[in-house]
Structures are given as C-alpha cells and as structure tokens.
Amino acid sequence: MISLKEAVIVEGRYDKIKLSSIIDTPIIETNGFRIFNDKQKQLLIRQIASKRGILIMTDSDSAGFVIRNFLRGVVPENELRHAYIPQLEGKEKRKSEQSKEGFLGVEGVSDEVIVEAIRKSGATIIGEEEKKRSSEITKSDLFELGLSGRENSKLLRERLLKELNMPSYLTTNAMLSALNCLYSFEELKSYLNNITV
Predict the structure, then answer these.
(1) Residue 157 is part of which domain span?
(2) 153-163 vs 185-193: helix axis angle to the nearest 10?
(3) What pLDDT digit, counting tens, does each position of 99-148 carry?
(4) Sign of the CA dihedral with 167 first, then 170, 174, and 179 last
(5) 68 and 157 both lie in a single domain
(6) Dihedral sign, CA of 154, 157, 163, 165?
(7) Measured between alpha carbons, how far is residue 128 from residues 4, 8, 55, 125 in Å?
(8) pLDDT tens digit sequence for 159-184
C-alpha cells in the first residue's frame, strides 16, 4: 500500500473499493455525471484541493474524460494531478458484458497498472523522493515533432495515442498533459521514430 499526499477522485463506488486496498489517502466519488449538478461536492473537492491537492483517476473512456475535463474547471490547475490508465480492452468481473466502448475501467485494471499511473502522475507519494522528468514536453516540441500544426498532425497523433495505449480522443492539450505525466521528450521522440504516416 502506498500513501499519497493528494486526495483521489474516482467515478464510482467500485473504483473506490478497488483503490482503497492499494492507496492510503481520502478517496472521493463523483457518482458519475452527478458531480455536474452537485454544488456541495464541488465545494468539498475545492476545499480538499486547496489543503492537499487532488489526483483525478477516471476511466479511460469518453465519460471518464468528460468528468476529468469538468473537474479541471472546478479545481485550480496547480492543485490538480492526473493519473491516466491505459485503454485496455476487457470486461470487469462483476459485469455480464463489456462497457459500451469495450475498455476496462479503474476497477478492472490490475493493481500494478494503477500504481504505475499514480507514480507517473507526479502525485506526492509519502516516503519516496519526488522524481523529476529529464525534460518537459512543450507545445513547440509537438509542432517540431509534427504532432501539431502540420498536414498529417492529426493522423500522427492518433497513431501515437494508439501506440502508447492512451485514449484516442485526447485533445492536443490533454495529450500534452498526459505525455508529461508519462514520458520524457527523449522517450516521446523514440516512440515517434517507430510510427509512420
């Protein structure tokens, strides 16, 4: 079990049950899309974020990204961390069939995947030294590498996201945020060398 400084936001109760056996920190449920109209919970999340920070860990489907993006508007950017789980096809054990998009949610991925996502998010793991990236990826880097502002940029981004098992519908800004949580500039260049457009 790892202890975090930040509180963790998840979508539902099964996600909370899963994480409570892996991490020691407050875990708050959004109850799915109910968070959009729940002003009291939004206020609670803002208060917690100002005291200890928030780590968002939603499913890697479109609903998870809608909730993640909504929370970006609730909590100041400097109080947020993002843990991204990869898009892995499969079905949770408790469900009779796959989700609409066919990907495992937070509750369905392995403990190792969750811990790795937390480590790469930049969250503060109590008792471990903070690990710094060798170089942060910038918007100009994305342009230089052909991932934005070029004729085939969209196709290259789609292929990169697929190669990295990241959600296919990330915007360029969300992709940049996720890349900085997971990879150095050098690692990104290395992945791009294996992709053709």
Answers:
(1) 139-193
(2) 100
(3) 777 788 898 899 999 999 999 898 999 887 544 444 678 888 899 899 99
(4) positive
(5) no
(6) negative
(7) 10, 18, 17, 6
(8) 998 888 877 777 888 888 778 777 88
Q: Print the SS3 string covering 76-102.
A: CHHHEEECCCCCCECCCCCCCCCCCCC
Is residue 61 domain-shared with residue 34, that is, in the same domain?
A: yes
Please state, as a whole number, how many other Cβ atoms lie within 10 Å of the Cβ of residue 24: 12
Strand-strand pairing, 80-82 and 23-24: unpaired
Instruction: Give the DSSP per-residue string, 119-145.
Output: HHHT--BTTSPPPPPSS---HHHHHHT
Helix (H) or strand (E) holding 2: strand 2-3
| 127 inside domain | no
Same domain? 23 vs 103: yes
